[in-house]
Amino acid sequence: MQAKIGLIGAISTLIGTMVGAAIFILLGPLADQTGPSLTLSFLLGAIPALFGSAYYMQLGSMFPSTGGSYVYASRLLNPTMGIITAFFMIMAGVGAIGMLALGFVNYLSFFIAGGSQVIIAISIVLIFVLVNLYGMKFANKIQIVMVAWMLIALLIYIVFGFFYQHSAEFIPIDNGPFLRNGVSGLMMAAVLAFYSYAGYGLITEIGGEIKNPQKNTPRAILISLVIVTLIYMGVSYISTSVVSIEDFISFTTSLPMAASLFLPGWVVTFIAIGGLLAIFTTLNAIMLIIPHEFVVMAKEGVVSKHFARKHKSFGTPYLSLLIVNGITIVLIVSGISETVFATMTVAGLLLSGIVMGMSALNIFKKMPDLYEKAALRIPKPILIACSFLGIVSSLLFTFLAVMDAPIVGAMALALAIIGVIYSKIVKVDILTDSLNKSID
């Protein structure tokens, strides 16, 4: 594949994936769980991502390949695990697109009222399908512009909120106990907060499309995760400092309404548009990334070669893109709720992350030479520790997430069973040598 995305583009893709609608819309429900400890919930929510980022960076440096989840699992575990992991990633992508499309309709109420939720949601999906049909390079340029606007909006909120909090006109607010609903409320909020970090490893899915991926993939993961964590903590701190928790909970669009307390109307509108762009950047990033799971499996003969077909002019894997979004549209029409879509996203990404941790533990047994040649070599004890901790924390968060929507647990189990059966039917037996050649 022709490399098209530089470090800035990779960082924009990851930040756009992680900073989604939640920071603009869902802070109220989170604050209801935590009270003033909202900032701490975002720090705790980052823990699985911080551990997981270590092995994603190592794997991304060793295997600079498109369709990272399938590639890592099939090389370091077995092809069947590669197929199952790819299915989990596709489930996560379908969930994210559905959640964001429906979230867009809810957020749109800040600007206009009325309209069919289903029709508007499907329309926004189709718009970004068209954007991505024009090719990854075009979609990534749009991504950089949208992420820049969104980051500026959030920085304005943090900086001016801080000055307002320390101004003469500000009256200190008593928001009650630090742990509004005790430790259990804080932990449940931390699980929900992890939704905001869940896409931290997705850039490895398009490693083959990144310039100098051995170095830029780990850099993009680390830089993006640090930036996003600081932004979430800054926004949550301001939000629980400048307005009463009860008022904040009642806001339908948390950040714009809170910003209206200390910023002029045109700046509030700028921030509100940033919320729309937060939805768009994640939608765009998911559509950039997830179809490549089909592409890499098609190239290795696991699924039909048609999935690897690209548009002659734009280089877009159009069939894979249309299949992923077609499934999403069917689920939207069927009435799947935003909550179920969200849980599909998190469960799919967490389960994929668990398999990635297992894959990383196998590096020193299966491919020590490739580890030694990698541009990034995380010390063995640290990588093993992070892999174990990442697996354990991801298992815990998966359990808590599935408890909220048991149907998603059933979906994941069904996909795993289908993956095993499918691998037996198609007799997936890929030689290690041929697999390693496909990495180059």
TrEMBL record:
UniProt entry tagged with the keyword Cell membrane: yes
Major subcellular location class: membrane
UniProt keyword terms in alphabetical order: Cell membrane, Membrane, Transmembrane, Transmembrane helix
Positions of transmembrane segments: 7-31, 37-56, 76-104, 110-134, 146-165, 185-208, 220-245, 265-290, 314-334, 340-361, 382-401, 407-426
UniProt subcellular location: Cell membrane
Cell membrane recorded as keyword: yes
Pfam families (UniProt xref): AA_permease_2 (PF13520)
Membrane topology, record value: Multi-pass membrane protein
The name this protein goes by in its record: APC family permease
Organism, scientific name: Sporosarcina contaminans
